[in-house]
Amino acid sequence: MNLPVTQLDDWQQLLSHTLDDPAELLRQLALPDSLLAPAIAAAGDFPLRVPLPYLRRIRRGDPDDPLLRQILPLGAERVAVPGYVTDPLAEAAANHRDGLIHKYKGRVLLILTGACAINCRYCFRRHFPYDENRLGPDQWREVLDYLHRHPEVNEVIFSGGDPLATSDRRLARMIGDLAQIPHLARLRVHSRLPVVIPQRITDSLIEALTGSRLQSVMVLHSNHGNEIDAEVAGAVARLRQAGVTLLNQAVLLRGVNDSVAAQKNLSERLFSAGILPYYLFVLDAVAGAAHFDVSDDEARALVLELQSELPGFLVPRLAREIPGRPSKTLLILSGDSTS
Ligand SMILES: *Cc1c(COP(=O)(O)O)cnc(C)c1O
Ligand code: SF4
Question: Does the reported pTM lie above 0.90?
Answer without folding.
Answer: yes
